[in-house]
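Hi U.,

Before I forget, here's the chain from the pilot set. I'm dumping it here mostly so it's searchable later in email.
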Amino acid sequence: MSDVAPAQKTAHLLSAFNKAMNTYDVSALAICFATDAEFTNVAGKRATGRIEIAKAHEALFASKQTPGVPSFYGSLFEVESSTVRFIKPDVAVIDINWKQIGTTGPDGQPWPPRKGLINTVAVEHNGEWLFVVFHNMVIQ
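Structure:
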């Protein structure tokens, strides 16, 4: 049995995801996902694979808002808390409670602060943790 606490094993992955969200870095975000990952956003739209996941975030992260698309550019995303449950030593279910402020709706108007929950499955591959299934939802 490892002496490392469960949350510490996956902490680098959560930190990298949080940083990518706050630097609007599509490439850095994509690297958090396995090449064959399944991603579902808060609206229920799915993307399969690292490339599709990156494409799904391009307009959200763009410095100039795309008409009809929300904008995360200039927002602050924060992981408020997370829980980790290991199914196997190299497979973890992670619940991530998050908040985001400073987003802009598809109509160009500011959105109020949002809170949500990400339910994800992550796997360890060659010492690196990656998301393989990722479901995001707004809860407030």
